[in-house]
Automatic annotation (TrEMBL):
<feature type="domain" description="Reverse transcriptase/retrotransposon-derived protein RNase H-like">
    <location>
        <begin position="54"/>
        <end position="152"/>
    </location>
</feature>
<dbReference type="InterPro" id="IPR043502">
    <property type="entry name" value="DNA/RNA_pol_sf"/>
</dbReference>
<dbReference type="InterPro" id="IPR043128">
    <property type="entry name" value="Rev_trsase/Diguanyl_cyclase"/>
</dbReference>
<dbReference type="Pfam" id="PF17919">
    <property type="entry name" value="RT_RNaseH_2"/>
</dbReference>
<protein>
    <submittedName>
        <fullName>Endogenous retrovirus group K member 18 Pol-like protein</fullName>
    </submittedName>
</protein>
<dbReference type="InterPro" id="IPR041577">
    <property type="entry name" value="RT_RNaseH_2"/>
</dbReference>
<dbReference type="InterPro" id="IPR051320">
    <property type="entry name" value="Viral_Replic_Matur_Polypro"/>
</dbReference>
């Protein structure tokens, strides 16, 4: 049924689809990127039956989410006896991560995590967005690993970001909120 679903025509139809996607978001890689774009089509003040301005890009994001929720996930169950590895990145104001654990000679995903950065974090320089993204995704992963060891990987040099860039771009309060 979902595979045959046509593109949403109204605000209400898109909101219904995104509600279904939200229920499955832990199993969908980069879910927040697709969700963010589709939500940008919705005027919050518009009545439910308002027609959408559907574009080719919207269709691409819709198709990606539709495919993701109709494909069997390849996620493994977390094991508290194994170390967890969290790979984090930030793209277009969205924090994304994948929590992995070793399975034989390879690593298998345990969860895909993603969330839109708040407006303050989204306005920071790239390295501080990466720090904020790491903080957000670590908090999300904590619900799965339950304080067991976790190694966090990111493409930015966090020490430099925190000690040098933060002095020029964050208030003390803003930095504490980003790093908590």
């Amino acid at each position: 049924m979902i595979r045959k679903m046509k593109s949403p025509q109204t605000v209400q139809q898109l909101q219904s689809f995104l509600g279904l996607v939200n229920y499955c978001r832990s199993w969908i890689p980069d879910c927040a990127i697709h969700d963010k774009y589709l939500r940008s089509l919705i005027d919050r003040k518009a009545p439910p039956k308002t027609p959408l301005n559907w574009t080719d890009e919207a269709e691409m994001h819709f198709a990606a989410l539709k495919k993701a929720i109709t494909t069997a996930p390849s996620l493994g169950l977390p094991s508290f006896e194994k170390e967890s590895h969290l790979h984090v990145r930030e793209t277009e104001g969205v924090a994304m991560g994948v929590l992995l654990q070793q399975h034989g000679s390879t690593y298998r995903p345990v969860a895909y995590l993603s969330k839109k950065l708040d407006n303050v974090a989204a306005g920071m320089p790239a390295c501080l967005r990466a720090v904020s993204a790491a903080a957000i995704v670590v908090q999300m992963a904590e619900k799965i690993v339950l304080s067991h060891p976790m190694i966090v990987y990111t493409s930015h040099q966090r020490t430099y970001c925190i000690t040098e860039k933060a002095r020029n771009n964050c208030t003390n309060c803003g930095l504490r909120m980003t790093l908590k």
